[in-house]
Here is the input.
Amino acid sequence: MDRPLLQAIEAYRHRQTVRCHMPGHKGKESGLFGKLCAYDVTEIPGTDSLYDCGGPLRLTELRLSALYGAADSLLSAGGSSLCIQTMLAMAAKRGGTLIASRSIHVSAVNAMGLLGLDPVWVYPRGEKHLAGRVQPGDVEQALRAHPDALAVYITSPDYYGIVSDIAAIAAVCRKHSVPLLVDNAHGAHLKFMERDMHPITLGASACCDSLHKTLPALTGAAALHLGKDYAVRYEPDGRLPAPRIQGCVLYRRAKEMMSVFGSTSPSYLIMLSIEDCCAQLPSLDFRLMAERIRRLEDIALAQGMRIPEGERDGIKLVVDATDLGYTGKALAQRMRADGIEPEYADAVWAILLFSPLTEPAEYDAVAQFLESLPHGRPLPGHLFPSVLPEKCRTLPQAFLQESELLPVSECEGRIAAAVKSPCPPGIPVVMPGEKIDRKLIKLLNDSGILLLKVLK
Ligand SMILES: Cc1ncc(COP(=O)(O)O)c(C=O)c1O
Here is the structure.
């Protein structure tokens, strides 16, 4: 498989040019990063330019779109956060309403605030111990109640690997002629699992993938994929052109929006890692990875630990530590002592994230840890807290307004000015514009959130 970006940078390197351009390391083997500096180039003839690409970067995008079956794809060196800003900016028309799952990343909340988008929340449900899944029927109901909604925005998988029924939600969105935008930051691998569960395959209009979260790519590497049905709507003759350098109309609009939010100095190392990731993908064994994770789940179940039910992303081991007498955090502490660093732990759950690059001996270490874990007396069960705060202002009305930072205990009756989520994954406890009541204060305290920005 040819690697146009790598080839372009190699060619430049071999010319041994005097680098009178950025970055300041001049490609020298200085400092910690040694040889990597030679590949950390900028926009010079031959290396393309991300927001106006027609060379090696564009070829990498076309390769991504072919791999994912998308109408087109955009590279992001700013993670899924940048792709989310882009998706929302494409949907927004100087403000407006959109239907959004309450399980949402702060980058989306902030983008909505900036773009003047007023979200109508759909709360995931159906699970007692986790946030649950976004129900297609709830999306339908929200769309009926808000026929002016510009789009539906769903996070799936969530941080705990819970996957919503994207195919059914996409069908609802098609019926109401609104685009379905999916935060698939945690699901770049879903395309390559035994059953292709990638949102683009299942009918999403657009989605972001954090390649760096589940695939072999550098932190910050991500892609924005555009679905064929979505893209075709923007074509003057109603037919999607074959993938080409210039890109379809929607692609060009997405590029423009991405350039509004993105750095004008996107990292070439990150973009090179996307090209490298594409080259590695065909040889990665996702089936074997899934089998090995299922084996760990069997061990956890045999030990008496609960794991989430229903459709999941297949790349994480998520266990309820309280069943064996630990909090999730205490279990994580024990893992650390055994040389295992989990992705995240909270009061209940511990999350371990794998990839096809995880080695057999590493799975064995986790298996051994689980098998030798001393059992304690189960801790009292935790139901997933559900508080539906009262909305007093729209999100854009409360976003970045004059505010003050107060101890949570002094916030009763005040209106939140910023989003607060238990770090990092949870459903935000409170959004800008929502009223703080006693129930919410307890939940904030329980989530370890002690200070809050409220409107003045
Ligand atoms: C659900 C979700 N969406 C989006 C993001 C942002 O992704 P990135 O870090 O690639 O910008 C995250 C980050 O953790 C996330 O958990």
